[in-house]
Amino acid sequence: MWKMLLPIGRNARTGGYSRSPFASAERECMAWYGEEAARRDLEVEYDGQGNAIAWWRPEGAAGRGVLVGSHLDSVDDGGAFDGPLGVISSFAAIDLLRDRGVVPTKPVGVGVFVEEEGSRFGIACLGSRLATGRIDAATAAGLKDADGTYLLDAMTAVGCEPSLGRSAMLEQVEVFVELHVEQGRDLVHRLRPIGVASASWAHGRWRFDFAGEPNHAGATRMEDRHDPMLTYAMTALAANKQARLGGARATFGRVTVEPNNTNAIPSRVQAWLDARGADAELVDRLVADIGRQAGQRAERDGTTVSVTAESVSPTVGFDVGLSRRIATILGDAPVIPTGAGHDAAILQLAGISSAMLFVRNPTGVSHSPAEVAEMADCLEGVEALAQVLEDLAT
Amino acid sequence: MWKMLLPIGRNARTGGYSRSPFASAERECMAWYGEEAARRDLEVEYDGQGNAIAWWRPEGAAGRGVLVGSHLDSVDDGGAFDGPLGVISSFAAIDLLRDRGVVPTKPVGVGVFVEEEGSRFGIACLGSRLATGRIDAATAAGLKDADGTYLLDAMTAVGCEPSLGRSAMLEQVEVFVELHVEQGRDLVHRLRPIGVASASWAHGRWRFDFAGEPNHAGATRMEDRHDPMLTYAMTALAANKQARLGGARATFGRVTVEPNNTNAIPSRVQAWLDARGADAELVDRLVADIGRQAGQRAERDGTTVSVTAESVSPTVGFDVGLSRRIATILGDAPVIPTGAGHDAAILQLAGISSAMLFVRNPTGVSHSPAEVAEMADCLEGVEALAQVLEDLAT
User: How many CB pairs under 8 A join A and B?
Assistant: First the structure.
């Protein structure tokens, strides 16, 4: 399966992957998903807004089903495993169960959620948020990508028939188990190939708009400037310091400068803060502190700053009973928290009992070509997923 | 004349102008220039690399000529006057001389130099550097714009026949007087509409490449990061502080981040430093100080930084005798320095006696839609240029 998927959206220079949602590379991945489902006689259900479930319904299987799967989109120049590992492992786990003659008494679904990374429309887990109604249709309809294309237009351009609302197909899901490459080195330190998630940290994205006075870089005296770049620079350093002090995480990884000329003091700097922490109050306090320091510096610089929350998610404890049960099945697998957001967290918030499996990542790196998982650990992941499915679906 | 030129390349939202060299808006301006020259029976000479001189050669005019003029390109979202004011005033000054029956005994040329702003190929005064041989052909041939288009291809795409070398047409020039909108408020404080330039500050552009380790913004512990954004942010603040301390100017107005995702620690930040000062040693010391502080911070951040000079120009004192003569003609016009680079400075360096006239700018702002000049002051500028031409060319 990897063989088909690995060339898609790959940058030959970096070895990284760019699979932006509703665009060619990600659509090729979705076509691959359809073929893998068809090869296994799974019946694929699309919700018209980019999400899908490939159902295995053996004779006699009844009631609401057990969902596995993950996502196929990537950040720009991301790794090979973040997302696809969960989808591939899900197909492989079904193969394993069938080889072993296991016949589920509940439907088993392999799900794919779209725009998990938020790389195109700025909202992480957009597909699962739409499918669970955790973003309202009006907000979603207003989303635009960097080129000004609206979400609805991007969807219809690739043949989706979006309703921008809750997906009926999720009503058939009782429980969701998402397998994912670990984004950190917790399992490396524990010498274990597989772990179970305890909670997904509270996290969010905030847009900082710094505005100043555009002017000539050579002719304008230093004391006459209102340079928003300086306000931004101090804010980026403050964010780092505050996150260290507070035991949280804060990152400015995306910046847009206008007009972005070497010889012009900018009129505007837009920068996006990614902030995370063990609980929502911690994150709120962190963002407020950063915003306050930005405001103070803006006063000194004669610039202005405004802060807009673009997406905010509370801490999500996955289903404790389910997670404990899975850890037990897997021979007391370690239970570890995650700083990353996931579709499983969105489904848990929406009332669908959810859990996550992590596969060891030797570098701990993710969202980068350096993200990695050993083949042996991936196979352990498939075995674990098969055991979990056998337990939950029979 | 303004009427034809004002709509070209204008952004209706900001009121600013974007006239990138060898692209449609700037080419329209060049077409306008050709028409204005033809209307006055001036003979236009093109050098095949984007520069041009429209010659007025009355019967009996002989020897090397007096060049006036400026440039027609702009920074992205720049002002209406920076460049075009000098070209329009030159045509208008010829009209005035003809109305008055003045017949020059030397040829008078209205020149346009291409890519003065360096907005597309990163090197300011590129046209005049090429025409005077102050950039070698191999370096010029290697220049690419942000889309990867080579300078030579951009030139030939709009019908130029580039040789990338000294322009023979400059051999016919004895003296160059460039009129320009002031980029600062010196004339405002002096209550004078017109000034004469004393010297153009030493200035240059340096590219700072900050490299780190791309990783997940949520899952990576603060202490495990190697985030080049932090190194850049400290460097931008240091540049500002050092320039203030040293009585110089330093600006980071252009930044590119890779991969520029909200939830990814960047792999790379590229930022361009524009630095200027009264003399070249001051600027060298400034850039060295900023580079040293960047290196120290990079060590703390576990990142790397490298600094590449992209274009560096020494202080250019314009022709002192010429400037004094012009100031006297204009009733003791004030003589003021300029932090901006100009084609006249390049020609002076290349041994062509050069001077500049400035027209008062009430806001002092330039490289921005807020750049302005009053009509009465512009007419004073035309009058001044006509007087200078009458003095120098008859």
Answer: 244
